[in-house]
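Worked example 3 (structure in, sequence out).
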């Protein structure tokens, strides 16, 4: 520690992670019960304090890895939350991040280990402090991002049907989309490739499976859904 800034009061800095998933045509959020005071037992996001030897981004990546066991996760900063009375324990400023993962890739043994569970966005219980404000802001940011970048593919398996893709966009945007217009627009996107594989889990006739081609997308400057 240094001798500087002793005339100023100190505050704690934490990170909180909003982890989105998509399953059963629903947008999901990973939350759990707090295991510490204040707020023990309340529903909460997963987070932690920033260590002296790490950046805020590094703290968020560390926290995400602890919870998911996954690296190279899509993560974006939501913003800083610093109301004076947001944490009754201490003066804490939290920097929130949202991440997107495929629920099927998540090791479900970690649910029990960390005491968390996937909850439908539309059925979220009251959350500790300002965590619900964080979740809503993150959802709005993702809703805007998905219009200009194919971030939604991080929530889907490598192979997906057009119905799955439409349900994903509807879940993120919170509104139904016209099937004909949606599919017309999708067919104009060269980076969404139709394969010869067919998914027959929902009907005997089945539906063609598609995949996202990152190389083609990087060469397409006109993506807009």
């Amino acid at each position: 520690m240094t001798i500087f800034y002793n005339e100023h009061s100190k505050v704690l800095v934490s990170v909180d992670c909003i982890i989105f998933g998509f399953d059963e045509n629903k947008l999901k959020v990973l939350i759990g019960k707090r295991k510490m005071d204040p707020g023990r037992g309340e529903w909460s996001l997963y987070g932690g304090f920033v260590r002296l030897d790490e950046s805020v981004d590094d703290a968020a990546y560390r926290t995400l890895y602890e919870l998911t066991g996954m690296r190279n996760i899509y993560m974006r900063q939501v913003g800083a939350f610093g109301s004076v009375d947001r944490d009754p324990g201490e003066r804490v400023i939290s920097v929130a991040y949202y991440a997107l993962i495929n629920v099927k890739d998540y090791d479900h043994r970690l649910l029990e280990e960390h005491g968390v569970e996937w909850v439908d966005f539309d059925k979220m219980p009251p959350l500790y402090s300002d965590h619900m404000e964080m979740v809503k802001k993150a959802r709005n940011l993702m809703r805007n991002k998905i219009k200009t970048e194919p971030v939604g593919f991080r929530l889907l398996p490598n192979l997906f049907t057009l119905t799955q893709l439409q349900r994903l966009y509807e879940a993120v945007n919170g509104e139904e989309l016209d099937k004909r217009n949606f599919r017309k627009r999708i067919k104009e996107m060269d980076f969404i490739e139709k394969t010869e594989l067919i998914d027959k889990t929902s009907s005997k006739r089945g539906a063609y499976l598609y995949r996202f081609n990152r190389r083609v997308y990087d060469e397409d400057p006109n993506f807009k859904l």
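Notes: The helical segments are 56-68, 109-114, 131-148, 162-173, 179-187, 214-218. The two ends are 51 Å apart (CA to CA).
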